[in-house]
Design goal:
Layout: E1 11-15, H1 27-35, E2 38-41, H2 44-54, E3 60-62, H3 69-78, E4 83-87, H4 100-108, E5 113-116, H5 121-129, E6 136-141, H6 146-156, E7 162-167, H7 169-183, E8 187-192, E9 200-205, H8 206-214, E10 222-226, H9 237-248, H10 253-264, H11 268-284
Helix pairs in contact: 3-4, 6-7, 7-8, 9-10, 9-11, 10-11
Length: 285
């Protein structure tokens, strides 16, 4: 049975849904959900509630990270003559989910692609955290195994930016402890149930927050935000001398001074003069 034309141009419509309160669905998002020929969803049971709220009776098609490639290809084919809305279980599609593959293939096929901005748990948690927001990195979920989790944290430990993670209640305390071990005991915030009745944001150091949730894993959707590393203290004269003496065992004076200047953020000319003194003192011994 063929459906009547929807009134929307054929193509892909990326619809940001609520992360908690159904009232956060934008009017434009609700309109697309009412008019689209088909709605691609992660879980039909979850999305059915939102579609009812939007007054939509449009058919749903499951599309998630376990969908076969041919499911994606059929959706791309339908975009040639139908409007396809993409909806995740919560928030903006493609953020920590596989929807980017659908967008990639739709673009390669020359389909029209439109996004309807709206809620995102990562952005909402940043606004609640009280941490710097001028530069941040979204990390999604950390690996479950301790070694892989530590490696992932080590990769970003020196990055001067606020870090944003998604996490589950049972893993929260261990993840916070790993962050403290690999990133340093930084200021952080744990936000949960954002825009819902029991919304909560707890702040403190990573160690303090890990202890808080050790015996009481929280329920609900959780976002962890971690502040950037603090400024490193300036290198002392003793630090500079130690670095120069080590470098002089491998390099001539000029190159040793340049290497240490770059490493410690000190003046190269001053280090050159000091390296010359150290070299001369060594020759007199």
């Amino acid at each position: 049975m063929e459906t009547e034309p929807s009134g929307l141009e054929p193509g892909l419509y990326i619809v940001a849904g609520p992360i908690g309160n159904l009232g956060d669905l934008t009017p434009r998002g609700a309109e697309v959900l009412r008019l689209a020929d088909v709605v691609a969803v992660e879980d039909t049971r979850v999305s059915a509630r939102l579609l009812r709220h939007a007054g939509s009776d449009r058919p749903m098609v499951p599309y998630h990270d376990h969908s076969a490639e041919n499911v994606r290809q059929r959706l791309v084919e339908r975009m040639g003559h139908e409007s396809v809305a993409l909806l995740s279980d919560a928030g903006t599609p493609l953020i920590s989910d596989p929807g980017y593959k659908l967008v990639r293939d739709a673009r390669a096929a020359g389909r029209r692609i439109t996004t309807l901005p709206g809620p995102s748990a990562a952005i909402a948690a940043l606004t609640l955290s009280g941490l710097p927001t001028d530069r941040f990195l979204f990390m999604g979920f950390l690996p479950s195994k301790a070694k892989a989790r530590g490696d992932a944290l080590d990769e970003v430990a020196a990055l001067r930016a606020t870090l944003v993670f998604y996490e589950s209640g049972p893993r929260l305390s261990d993840s916070l402890a790993s962050m403290a071990a690999h990133l340093g005991d930084r200021d952080a915030a744990v936000s949960r149930e954002i825009s819902k009745t029991f919304e909560e944001t707890a702040t403190g150091t990573l160690t303090e927050l890990s202890a808080r949730y050790a015996d009481a894993p929280p329920k609900g959707e959780i976002v962890v935000t971690v502040g950037p590393p603090g400024e490193a203290p300036p290198a002392s004269a003793e630090d500079a001398d130690a670095a120069l003496l080590e470098a002089l065992t491998r390099l001539p004076v000029s190159k040793a001074a340049g290497e240490v200047a770059k490493k410690l953020g000190l003046d190269r000319r001053t280090l050159y003069d000091r390296a010359t003194e150290l070299k001369a003192a060594e020759a007199e011994e």
